[in-house]
Each structure stands twice: as structure tokens, then as C-alpha cells.
User: Fold purine-nucleoside phosphorylase from Branchiostoma belcheri.
Amino acid sequence: MHRLINSISLHFKKVSSFSVKDKPLPFPQVAMPVHVFKMLGVETLFVTNAAGGLNSSYTIGDIMIVKDHISMPGLTTDNPLTGFTNERFGEQLPALPELYDSGLRELAWSVVGELGLQKMVREGTLVQVGGPSFDTVSVFNMLRRLGADCVGMSSAPEVTVARHCGIRVFGLSLVTDMAPMESDLPPTNHQEILQTAEVRARDVQKLVCEMIKRLPNNNTSST
Ligand SMILES: O=P(O)(O)O[C@H]1O[C@H](CO)[C@@H](O)[C@H]1O
Ligand code: HPA
Assistant:
């Protein structure tokens, strides 16, 4: 139970504003579940997502340990902390220097080695777009030039809220498809994304479960 509360591995399928494609929720509602975790005493948040590969050295099925993210909506007015003037959960104008905990990333690499998954694991930058449509070839090329290795529609808002209130974070992106960089390539296909996710779910689960077993009990965030 202690481990369960201290280390929740979550996929925000139901609660993330970016996963509820029919009717996006306003940003404070992304923050709410994370704040509930905080009040429950959660110290570590694991986020996972399906993402399109932008880095040409990646292949479908790779698992990317998220080192940092770029939130396209967050760069404008859709920052998930917008409107939080109550400092109960964190300061009003926070710096968020290390969103993805370096100690947890190191732990991940040692577990990856033990599980023999090195050949399919990468470490890189996730860019979050608003969705729900997939992006154009020109946008994919732009996102790659910005320095992103993978593109997805979730995780960044939850991670920002978690770091703001002092929860340390670990993130994984599963490369479910390669973003088309030329107009004559087939467009992103949701069925392909679901299929890759199904095929690779077991390895992602193994990695997450092994990491959770080895987590330190106290919140010694590397930042
Ligand atoms: O981020 P998760 O919830 O894994 O979902 C990912 O998969 C969907 C695309 O198929 C997009 O919503 C993308 O963000
Ligand atoms: O290309 C993509 N864009 C956004 N989200 C995604 N999730 C899987 N692939 C993609």
C-alpha cells in the first residue's frame, strides 16, 4: 500500500484534457487529479504516452525515456498553471528546471540494462501538441528542427503541474509510429498506433514495474 501511494504509475487516459478528444477540458481540470495525488501523499508520478517518432534514428517500437519536453500549447496561453493564484500547491511564477528527474532516468537505464532492452530504448525530448488532429508534414519537420525527438498530445501538462507541487516525475514515450516527413509518405494512422502500443505494452510494463520496486521511499528529487 505504501508503495502504491508513493509511486503511482498512471496513464491519464480518462482525465487528461488531451485524451478526451471530443470535448477538451479546461486546463485547471488537468491539474486537479495531480493535486489529489499530492494530497494523498504521492511523491513520484510516472507518465507514459504513445508518440510519433521525429528523430530519424528512432524506429517504431522504441521506448524513449523523456528527458525534457516542449509544450506547444503551454508556450501560449494554455499553460496548465494558468489561473493558479493559490500558493498552497506551489509558487505563482515557478521555475521548472528539471521536469524529469535525473535520478529516476539513471535508475531506468540500469533497469533497461538488466532487462536487456538497451537496443530499443532512447532518451530524448517530447513535444506536446494540442491535437486532436495529427500534424502536417510541415509541422512535423518544424517540430524536429525545434529539437524534439517524439511528438504526442499528452503528458506535458500533468508533468508541469506535478513538478510545480513538488512531485518528482518519470516519463516514457512509446514510439508507436514514425511521423511522415515527406508529403508522399502515408499519413499518421491511429490503428497503427494502437497496434504498436499493444505489441510493446509488456516491455513498457516490465520496465515500469521493475523501476517501482527499486524506488527510494523518500522524495529525494534530484532538483
Ligand atoms: O498521449 P496518449 O494518451 O498516449 O495518446 C496518444 O495517442 C493518441 C494518438 O493515437 C494521442 O492522443 C497521443 O497523445
Ligand atoms: O504523430 C503524432 N502526433 C501526436 N500524437 C501522436 N501519438 C502518436 N503519434 C502521434
